[in-house]
Amino acid sequence: MLTLLAAFCISTSIYLSKPFSFLPVQPDRKIGHFRTKKEKVNIQELREVIEVLILALGSGMTVPMAIRALNDFSEAALAKRLNLAVSSHAAGANLTNEFSNVGNENNYWKLITTQLQISWEQGARVVENFVELNEFFIDLERAQILKKVKSAGVKSVIPLGLCFLPAFMLVVVVPLVAGLINF
After folding, report:
1. pLDDT tens-place string over residues 158-179
2. How many other CB atoms sit within 10 Å of the CB of residue 70?
3. Residue 26's pLDDT is what?
4. pLDDT score at 124
5. Burial of 140 (0-12, 13-18, 19+ CB in 10 A)
6. Nearest Cα residue to 82 out of 42, 55, 57, 110
7. Which long-range contacts (CB under 8 A, 24 or more apart) does 117-120 make?
8. Read out DSSP for 97-164?
9. pLDDT tens digits, 126-145
10. How far is 53 from 118, CA to CA, in rounded Å?
């Protein structure tokens, strides 16, 4: 009986716990449209790309040099795609258009390529923007982990309930019904 009470308390606490989100909620950040699309993207790879770009651009490299350095350090799909864009630029293509094409492939990539476009076109320092973008991806990764943890708790309670239900029937309900029949 004590085990049943413990199982009930655990399952109740899981269902009644308030949802918590690590995602920043700011009126100037529009992140809602990223939640609607089910894109398979590795957040860890995106963070790796951003961290290398922060180091490269922070050291004074130009955007094409930073992307070539990124390709040397990262095996991410975005790094390879950006390197192709820089190679096309070396062959005579417009780098801004190449960044737009890469950004159109994935909404998360668009966040990174937009900053690269700003840096390339205007010569603006975007390291601080990349630091904030890295923090956003850290928050997104934490939210995904939290979502998986919450679903694991619920999934683990289901077998527990199924195991205790027959025992509860035998220990509580059957003697109660038998007692009422003999009464």
Report:
1. 777 788 888 888 888 888 888 8
2. 26
3. 37
4. 82
5. buried
6. 110
7. 119/57, 119/63, 120/63, 120/95, 120/96
8. HHHHHHHHH-HHHHHHHHHHHHHHHH----HHHHHHHHHHHHHHHHHHHHHHHHHHHHHHHHHHHHHH
9. 899 999 999 999 999 999 88
10. 14
- Return the residue matching tokens 């909620």: 25
Instruction: Supply the DSSP symbol for 179.
Output: H
Q: What pTM does this model have? A: 0.63
| 108-131 b/e (C-beta count within 10 Å ≥ 16 → b) | bbbbbbbbbbbbbeeeeebbebbe
Give the model's pLDDT for residue 120: 87
| Structure tokens that stand for 163 in this block | 């195991």
Place of tokens 């005579």: 92
